[in-house]
Amino acid sequence: MVAYFYINEHELAEALECGLKLSVYGKPIPESGDIPIRVIHAYLSPRDNIDAFNDPGLVCLKLDLPGDKLLVAEEIYAIIGKHKWFNESIIHASKYMLGRYHKPCYLITFTVLGEFISLLDKNMDVPVLYENSASLYIQTLKTRFEDNDDAFYDKAFFGYMKLLASMGRASEEWSGHGTSVFLMDGERYVLHKPSDEI
Hints:
By secondary structure, the chain is an alpha+beta fold. Helix content is 30%, strand content 28%. It has helices at 12-18, 22-25, 50-54, 75-79, 83-89, 133-148, 152-166, and strands at 2-8, 27-28, 38-43, 58-64, 70-74, 91-92, 104-108, 117-119, 171-176, 179-184, 187-192. The protein is elongated, with a radius of gyration of 22 Å.
């Protein structure tokens, strides 16, 4: 499996020669017990950290790693401080299906040797299957909701316009007979009201 990891440009030569040491690049998994488990957090797509991708002072390493030793977790939970949820989300990479997590990260539990590291060419070597994991996650959710609810778009558009109306960016001009008419930017939008809103 391929993982992506950003380092400072001045660290590149040492990383290619000596690898990524777990003791240097690893961070403890929060609430992992009395003896903290250290892991290197890497990305499934180089664009999963667009700030790092666009930072000229950073380089992206492409790590060719054995899938049976990799774990995947939902990093959003760690970012928002829900460490229990983060730990519950950890699964073996072989069981991870693309689009399952909003911000998936690989958890590398070992030192990555230099022979398994190469420099990513951002212009020629970026995967084109999907832009980043977050957009794939949203697309996956949309497909799942579409498949499970025939009224998904009615609910989505109606909810979106109600939200804009609550923010003062749109107004509900008329409502009746299972229909609502919203006004936004001088244009009217006729939307079917979801059945539980009638």
